[in-house]
Amino acid sequence: MRPAFDLAPELTGETLHLRPLRQDDFEALHAAASDPATWAGHPARNRHERDVFRGYFDFLLASGGTLAIIDRSRGRIIGCSRYYAPPDRPDEIAIGFTFIDNAYWGGATNFELKRLMLGHAFSSFDTVWFHIDPTNLRSQKATGKLGAVHAYDATLDLSGTPVAWMCFRLDRDAWETRAGGR
What we know:
Layout: E1 11-12, E2 16-20, H1 26-33, H2 50-63, E3 66-71, E4 76-84, E5 93-100, H3 109-121, E6 127-132, H4 137-145, E7 149-157, E8 162-171, H5 172-180
Parallel strand pairs: 5-6
Antiparallel strand pairs: 1-2, 2-3, 3-4, 4-5, 6-8, 7-8
Helix pairs in contact: 1-2
């Protein structure tokens, strides 16, 4: 990965503030993740359970590059997302491990989140990757709405165990075309 890229920036948009995840964010992030509906359609359907979420949180914190998503109007954490180097493309960047409290679905929150993160990523990279579980149709559709295309399938170790992923590619030009239309 390019050494000048900041994996843990502070980014502020109209309604969201992103900042590096901290150890003391556990309770607030778990509250955002505690509704089982948030994980409906996701392969980790039980991630709303405190003990299961603790392992996920510890992984995110230890891995680095994870940003807490904060609703600026309420001052509360509503989810998180992460920058990381894809294991099969170590000189490139990926965005993933994203979840948003389901109360924020269906609006502009995910687009603003991705606009902030992609703006930062495209300041250093020409391409951003997204790795999505083949069963997670909601994330596949959301990634397609950004202008990303399914490039290939691969078995990758993103979090301790090699599993199958759909690899989506978003090039700067495709993003600028998509973002310019909003």
